[in-house]
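Hi F.,

I've been meaning to write this up properly since the lab meeting, where we talked about keeping a consistent format for the predictions we share between groups. The idea is simple: the sequence comes first, exactly as it goes in, then the C-alpha cells exactly as they come out, then a line or two of notes. No screenshots and no reformatting. I'm using this chain as the first example so we have something concrete to point to.
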Amino acid sequence: MAPPSNVALPEPALRPVIVLETQIPGFGLRASFDQHKILFLALVHIESDTAATFTAHHSRNVMRTASGGIQIGTVVYLLAKGEAERFFQWLRTGESYPGGVN
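Output, unedited:
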C-alpha cells in the first residue's frame, strides 16, 4: 500500500511488511512490526485494501496453531498451507524490501 501522495515518509519510518495468504478467498493477513518488536496484524480485503480486523501485541506472544495458522493473544488467523512457516521465517529475519513489499 503506497502512502498518500501528500505525505512524505522518512526512510527510517519504513518497516518490514509481509502479506500472507489466508484460507478466506479475497483476504490476506498483513503483518509488520516496529522497533520495539510490537507486531501489528491486519486482516485485509485485498481488492479494496481495507482492514477487516487489526491487532497489536508483542511479537514474543505469537504462537503456531495446529491448524496451520498463527495465534496472537486470543486471536487466531487461519492461513493457507505453508504461510505460517513463511511468517515465522519473516519474523525471525525481518526480511523485506524498502516500501514493505516482499
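Notes:
Residues 96-102 have pLDDT under 50 and may be disordered.
The two ends are 12 Å apart (CA to CA).

If this format works for you, I'll send the rest the same way.

G.
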